[in-house]
Amino acid sequence: MSKKKGLSFDDKRTRMLEIFTESKTFFTLKELEKVAPKQKGIVLPSVKEVLQSLVDDDVVSSDKCGTQTVYWCLPSQAVQKKRCKIASLTENLQTKYVLRQQLLQRRDELRSCHQDTEERIQLIEKVNELESQLKMLKEQLDIYKESDPEVLAEIRSVSHIAWEAANRWTDNIFSIRSWVASKFGLPSSEFDKNFGIPEDLDYI
After folding, report:
1. Comparing C-alpha atoms, which of 30, 99, 102 is closest to residue 68?
2. Is the entire prediction scored with pTM above 0.70?
3. Mapped to the 3 state alphabet, what secondary structure does 161-186 carry?
């Protein structure tokens, strides 16, 4: 025959609360330690702990009466506490809803600021042009690196100019991205996405 399973802590809380709601009266701890084991099967050592958890959660009220502490939870009081809890949760939900609407509005405002402009188009075209030139110069450099020294020197000179220009435009892009982040709070990833900037863009 299997051993009888004891009550869970939540079961003990429920049964303890039933003592108050069914009797509609006041109890001391000593009285509960006598009533709870007999009427609700709550073992004596756990009565105080269960009672204190109900007091901590504001389910059961308590107050000093002379040298003793009395505990109670009238049905009307329990209903009122539940109503207050519902009102508090409803208010919190409304606050979260308003915050959500504000964030959505802010998102839409930021999106409207990221429309294509002539400056943006020219910037991207210039970057692409410089990257194309740099690629071509690197290919020519590979062809002539073991050829005429003068041609090689000229290619290196042009390549250096293109390298400086590419880094200068890259620096301009980084400066604009930093300014937009500071002005509108737009993350760098969103800036790159909206302006067509490659994820791996960096100084050469």
Report:
1. 30
2. no
3. HHHHHHHHHHHHHHHHHHHHHHHHCC
Helix-helix angle 188-195:118-144, to 10 degrees: 90
Helix axes 188-195, 149-184, angle to 10 degrees: 120
Beta strands in 58-182 (DSSP E): 61-65, 68-72
Cα four-point dihedral sign 178, 182, 184, 185: positive
What are the tens digits of pLDDT across the range 129-162? 878 777 777 776 666 555 555 655 665 676 777 7
User: Domain map of the chain by residue range?
Assistant: 9-76, 113-195
The listed CATH number (1.10.10.10, 1.25.40.10, 1.10.238.10, 1.10.150.20) that belongs to domain 9-76? 1.10.10.10
Give the distance from CA 158 to its chain's centroid. 50
Check: CB of residue 62 under 8 Å from CB of residue 55.
yes
Query: Which residues have a Cβ under 8 Å from the Cβ of 21 and sit 6 or more positions away?
Result: 73, 74, 75, 78
